[in-house]
Design brief:
Structural class: alpha+beta
Shape: globular
Radius of gyration: 18 Å
Number of helices: 3
Distance between the termini: 38 Å
Length: 138
């Protein structure tokens, strides 16, 4: 999704099997990618987005109302902000960037769990699916 895989100069799907001896290239796609400069974060967002807890596995951030949890290419989201403000993980199963483990609606502000490793994402997602976590509207 994020790039293109080429085998011997021909574009292939990422699950293409090689025999051995082929030249495999991965090229980053740039067209349509968000070009969000962290120096241009709107002041209101930089003041209201907060990292409340962070370790090598996960982070808990305060998502302000009025921004999406994720999606919306070309506009700031909680995931984009987290990418610019969180430390990268070096833990087992580290993800390239933190992932929202659940969603908060656009008009909702609140705590958002961000997984930085695949095991943390699986654990948090399972906990929410099994309703082991508690959500409260204040």
């Amino acid at each position: 999704r994020k790039g293109q895989v080429f085998v011997d100069g021909q574009k292939r799907k990422c699950d293409f099997h090689v025999e051995g001896g082929e030249r495999v290239e991965w090229r980053q796609r740039t067209e349509g990618a968000p070009t969000l400069n962290p120096a241009l974060v709107p002041e209101a967002l930089s003041r209201s987005f907060r990292i409340l807890y962070e370790d090598d596995e996960l982070a808990v951030v305060w998502k302000p109302e009025g921004i999406s949890t994720n999606g919306d290419r070309g506009s700031w989201t909680a995931v984009h902000l987290a990418h610019h403000y969180l430390r990268p993980s070096i833990g087992r199963g580290a993800l390239r960037r933190a992932v929202a483990a659940h969603r908060l609606d656009l008009p909702t502000s609140g705590l958002l769990c961000m997984a930085k490793t695949q095991p943390a994402l699986s654990f948090i997602a399972t906990a929410f699916a099994e309703r082991r976590g508690e959500k409260r509207d204040l």
